Every structure is written in structure tokens, then in C-alpha cells.
Amino acid sequence: MSSPWRAAAESLAADLARVFGDRLRSVCVYGSHVEGDGGSTPVSCVALVSSLTTIDLDACSRALHGWHRQGLATPLLLSEQEFARSLDAFPLEYAEMQRAHTHVYGRDPFDGVTIAREDFRRACETQVKSHLLHLREEYLEAAGRPLAVADLVLASAPGFAALVRNIARLHGVTGTDRATVTRQGARLAGIGEGILAEVLALERPDGLTTSDPARLFPEYLAAVEQLARFVDGWRA
């Protein structure tokens, strides 16, 4: 891990240990910083405890400003039981944490954790179809205005990339390289390389120099529709 934000995460763990004592079980950093491309975004952390009360929350709230000042996002606080019993409720989120995380205190809570394939598939279907419905709704609201359509495509491009990566993981792809996993997911779902490359280019600062977001919308929408059909018919 990069030392500046590792120090911040360890400081968070020390603060939480003062609040929870021996009830603190683990603290993990997850997300883009673990992969080395977090930039200036806040560092995401999750902490598991044996029990959690309002008194604990009040104590944590008094430390929150300091955490934010160190570049930390507000941490996720969960009891061990809540974590174990919510794997089926948030399979995509926990799978992403499991893929890209490192623990800075206590045991690694993701060791030995298995997310049921059908729970993951169902969550993929919900996510893809929600993305599709929002695209259509926001396109209607754009009323044909090119700038509004361009903003819609730009804002939704990262979500599209995440959808495609989840399709890859549904098929057991376990690589950590985002670009490779995204391409594999697109191939599995029957998404063309051309539209994939153009939409993903919009995630880069220089993406607008190679792609016209408004022009991409019809093909982009068709790609999301294909994802919805694919995950709807998926069987283990």
C-alpha cells in the first residue's frame, strides 16, 4: 500500500480500537487505492466489530472530522453477524471488496468467504436492468438535447464498465486487472469491442477527444440491452 494512506488507515484503526476495545475485530481498506489508482479520492474502509451501539456511533462521530481531514471516507461499521448475514443481500459490493482489499487490523474478514453464484447472478440482473431503465428515463428527459445526452453517457460510463466486469466475475473470472476483466466480460456477453472501447474511453480525462458521447448513445443503449438479455438467461 502507498504509505500516506496506509498511515491514515492505521490511524483510523487505532481510533476505532480506543472506541471499541477488544470488540474491534478487523479493519480493511478496499477499492481503488488498493489497486494503486485511487488518486485524490477518499480512502474507503470497513470495520467489523462484535457489537455496535449508539454510544459507539457517538464516539466515532466525534472523530469523523479528523478522519476526513486525513483523506478517509466515512468508514462502514458492521457487526460480525451483520456482515455474515448480509452476503446474500449485497453480493456485488462484497465481491468487489473481496477482490480489492487489504486488512490493516485484526484478521482478514474475507478469508474463506464464499458468495453464492445465484445471489451474485440475481444482483447482476437487478443492477443491469436498473441501469437500462435509468438510461431510457434520462434519455427521455434529455429531450434530444445533444449536451444532455452527452452528459448522460459520460455519467453512466463507469457504471457500465462495472456491469461488464460483474458479468466476467459471474463466470469465475478472478483477475485483478480492470481492463482485462472488462474485455472478458464483454466477450462473454456478446458486447462488441468497438462500443466497449468507445464507452470506456470516456472514463479517461482525454476520452472526449476520441469519442462523441451523444453519438454513442444508440449503440451504447443496445449494448446495455444485450447485457440485460444475457444475464436474464444465464444459467450456471
Any descriptors?
about 240 residues, alpha+beta, 2 domains, four-stranded mixed beta sheet
Q: How would you describe the overall organization of this protein?
A:
The structure is a single chain. With 236 residues, this protein is α+β, with helices and mostly antiparallel strands. It has two domains: 104 residues, 2-Layer Sandwich (Beta Polymerase, domain 2), CATH 3.30.460; 116 residues. 60% of the residues lie in helices and 10% in strands. It is built from nine helices and four strands, in the order H-E-E-H-E-H-H-E-H-H-H-H-H. The protein has a four-stranded mixed sheet. Helix 2 links the parallel strand 2 and strand 3. Helix 1 packs antiparallel against helix 2 and helix 6 runs parallel beside helix 9. The longest helix is centred in the middle third of the chain and has 26 residues. The radius of gyration is 20 Å and the shape is globular. The mean pLDDT is 91.
Separation of termini? Answer: 36 Å
Q: From the alpha carbons, calculate the radius of gyration and give it in angstroms.
A: 20 Å
Number of strands: 4
Count of separate structural domains: 2
Short description:
By secondary structure, the protein is of the alpha+beta class. It folds into two domains: 3-106, Beta Polymerase, domain 2 (2-Layer Sandwich), CATH 3.30.460; 117-232.
